[in-house]
Amino acid sequence: MTVEPRRHERFAGLSCYTANLAGYLDTEMSDVDSHVARSVRLAVRLEGDRLQFSHHRYPLDLMPDGTRLRYATLPPRAALVSLIGELSRQGRVLVVTDGSRLPWSPSRQQGAIAPHWLLVTGRSGDSWHVVDSFAGLLPAGEQRPYVGWLSTAQLTDAMVLPAGWSAEQHTRNSLAFGFPVPVPVPVGPLWLRRVAGAPAPGALDDGWLVGAEHVLPFLADHLADSPQMAERHLDDLWAAAAHRVFRYRWLAARSTEPEQGYTEAVSAWTQLPSALRFAVDSARRGRARPTLLRQTFRHLLEIEPTEDQILTASRREAR
Questions:
Q1: What are the residue boundaries of the structural domains of the chain, listed by start?
Q2: What is the pLDDT of residues 230-247, one digit of tens each?
Q3: 9-196 CATH, one of 3.40.1710, 3.90.70, 3.30.70, 2.60.98
Q4: Global pTM?
Q5: What are the phi and psi torsion angles at 317 (to 5°)?
């Protein structure tokens, strides 16, 4: 199968994991936007000296037919055979690439390595049709969504995984669906395949904070006290903001009350990454901004729509 160039543009504001997972689901579900928007939540846990983030309230690895997506890895030649088989069975397959190796990425060849999901939707001879719905402003420049063809050499090159992904990046791979899944030690390319699955977990393990009233004050204190922690988790916080913006835009489109607060929430969460980047850059110059960080998260908490408002919009959607 192939995908119309503009079909998945509505997912562009999400993280590369969720944007391309939504594209994967879009051929199988009639209400992907609702499914993803309803899933959005922010949970956080302090594990040693690192934070862990969960962005979804139910596991997005569970497919409509009851199967689950799980990471797989094989040596390069065997991996290509397996990708062809998955593509034949499912019509598309999510592969794990390094963002700095994608031809359209502004980070290409600049050393800014990062895991990046890519959706493969077709194959013709030595060419593979790919969709990357992700868009974002990276340190190296703006990345825009991409739909096009890669040769086998280009695809396998993008799927060469570096040894230097950080502990935070490995954690993002494990928690990409909202709940931890096993990530095998790669022996070659890494991709996601459909498997018969066990029942979904009902809740996160102990130690997780869930709910804006708990998470935002916690982040305010920890990030204000540790600019280094804020810097290590900029991508996690960018993803949290991107998911929240997607959720509130979806809710706003279904709200019959213009003063519901979604517009203000969208604006505040949109501004979060730039505020955090400013604070991190200031700390590097020896001028920490703990007050700015605390005020930023306090403002997010003040304008966060209440659960009653969200439930009202959800009931309207269900009718």
A1: 9-196, 211-318
A2: 899 999 999 999 999 999
A3: 3.90.70
A4: 0.92
A5: -65, -35
